[in-house]
Amino acid sequence: MIIPSANRLQQVQEYYFSRKLAEVRALNAQGRNIINLGIGDPDMDPSEETINALVKTSMSSGVHGYQPYNSIAPLRQAIARWYNQTYNVTLDPDQEILPLMGSKEGIFHVSMAFLNPGDKVLVPNPGYPAYSAAAKLVGAEPVFYTLKEANGWLPDAQELEQLLSAGDVKLMWVNYPHMPTGAEATAGALQKLVHLALKHKFLLANDNPYSLVLPHEKPLSLLSLPDAKECCLEFNSLSKSHNMAGWRVGMVLGRQDYLQCVLRVKSNLDSGMFQPVQHAAIQALSNSDAWHDARNQVYAQRRQKVYELLDLLGCSYQKNAVGMFVWARVPESVTDVEAFLDQILYEAGVFLTPGKIFGTQGERYLRVSLCMPETKIEEATNRISKHLTSAKTEISL
């Protein structure tokens, strides 16, 4: 390589799924027909009305040029209505809502907007790898706080106080309902974090894209809590809740002065969201409760099939999780979880995600996606069953 890469790239690796899905594609090119239960890529379609809105608007004149960096006003207004109806949160569409081209980009925007080199960022372990990667790319230091199954995958208050006492914490990421574990946080647990943020003067950011997927009760927003707007931002997305992952429609919500900082970064990196996509998003945000219920019924049926697959593997799991994944603990007889899952990939043709990619607290776990038809999940179970039987036969021989 003639031109050396920037030093910051020494701090991060290519995203795990970017590498692993390339591996899966290579196996498929060999005719392996891998069943991918590793990634949360919704396979069901958006509502028919959403697609029709995209098509209709795309055929109109005057919609193919650059768009406002903070989106068209009707989209912000639709998000405000959706947040009020879904989360009982009142937002000013002109000051407290900033649409994004996917919430993942917002993680980097917020990191660029608020973090200086040397600042510390509290990151959940296990948690979404993008939080720590974004911190490293801007020269900040990710500091991991521990989530444990025994504590319901919620932050430990005593540990947080210890980490905060060292100073220099500028930002804390939370993600409830939690990915990868599916744990929900109570209003009380989140309120304690708000109090910590006010006390120690850091920005608390909640990544909230899973709250409409198999929820138990009314979805919860961090911004619904007293004083949250003083120190908090919330991210949301239509990727999971509206089957629109490839459309890249997200949002960040909170105080105007915080969002203006984010916009100063964003406006230097993109040129606005395609207007027909914005009109489609407006339509999607009016999807009926019946539409959401129908999607969740499909996921619930698939989840039962995933439980059967996990029972076959001898895994333990919680049945009260939220979201489009099942997080499961692998039996102690498996010494190397990643190697075990690679064996299943190469010999059974089924891709499951090792929990270690989400942090050290995920070492003994795996994650299974619900984004695959029941018939494919059943086929995956049958393939794994044959693989395990064959492996036992080889051992006995």
Briefly say what this structure is.
This protein has 397 residues and is an alpha/beta fold. It has helices at 16-29, 48-58, 73-87, 103-114, 129-137, 157-165, 187-200, 228-231, 256-266, 275-284, 289-313, 337-348, 374-396; strands at 35-36, 97-100, 120-125, 141-146, 169-174, 203-207, 232-237, 250-254, 316-317, 325-329, 350-351, 353-354, 365-369.
Major sheet: arrangement of strands: 2-8-7-6-5-3-4
CATH class (first level) name of the largest domain? Alpha Beta
- In the CATH hierarchy, the third-tier topology of the largest domain is known as Aspartate Aminotransferase, domain 2
Major sheet attributes: 7 strands, mixed
Q: Give the number of DSSP strands.
A: 13
Write down the oligomeric state.
single chain
Number of structurally distinct domains: 2
Count the helices. How many?
A: 13
Q: How much is the average pLDDT?
A: 93
Low-confidence stretches: none
CATH architecture descriptor text of the largest domain: 3-Layer(aba) Sandwich
CATH homologous superfamily placement of the largest domain? Type I PLP-dependent aspartate aminotransferase-like (Major domain)
Helical residues, percent: 40-55%
Task: Give the C-alpha Rg.
Answer: 22 Å
Q: Which series of helices and strands comes N to C?
A: HEHHEHEHEHEHEHEEHHHEEHEEEH
Rough outline: globular
Alpha-beta classification: alpha/beta
